[in-house]
Amino acid sequence: MAKVLLGFMGAGKTTVAGYLTDNFLDMDTIIEEKVGMSITDFFAEYGEAAFRKLESETLQELMKIDGDIIISTGGGVVISEKNRELLRQNRKYNVLLAASFEVLYERIKNDKVYQRPLFLNNSKEDFHGIFERRMMLYEGLSDLIINVDNRTPEEIARIIKCM
Ligand code: S3P
């Protein structure tokens, strides 16, 4: 089965996946390898719709893999109904890394390595709206919800390993 890490940007999905296994599958990294450029550049050149198409294709490919795998998703994977349908079938093994908006906003703002396109292209108020809508979707798809505000990635990984 696939343990799928869900959550908003900055929640630590990729970092936590790295504490679970060396061989996790990171959707954003896979997409970057497919297109040969960073997500930021891809968004700027081809737009969000093209990115979402690739994201859906990648999710479908990964969910077909047999065996115990860890998938780290991009925060927007839940906006497509087709993706949600796939993820719904895996609900028992989906883990939501939940954090408060202010904590995530500060992390995203201070991330000098990866400036997320949706952060750059939206006001704080609009970004908050995206967060609220997404949280409802993540919650409906995850049997395990971990509040990550005051937990280290090691602690979060330990909880997930007990699943
Ligand atoms: C996105 C989240 C990003 C990346 C892209 C879009 C989103 O991944 O897939 O910038 O729509 O929430 P992270 O959740 O790893 O930041």
TrEMBL record:
The Gene Ontology biological process annotation of the record reads: amino acid biosynthetic process; aromatic amino acid family biosynthetic process; chorismate biosynthetic process
The answer on whether this UniProt entry bears the keyword ATP-binding reads yes
UniProt-annotated binding residues for substrate = 28, 52, 75, 134
Q: Which reaction does it catalyse?
A: shikimate + ATP = 3-phosphoshikimate + ADP + H(+)
Recorded superkingdom: Bacteria
Listed GO MF terms: ATP binding; magnesium ion binding; shikimate kinase activity
Question: What family is it from?
Answer: Belongs to the shikimate kinase family.
Q: How does it assemble?
A: Monomer.
Q: Please state what the protein is called.
A: Shikimate kinase
Q: Which organism is it from?
A: Streptococcus pantholopis
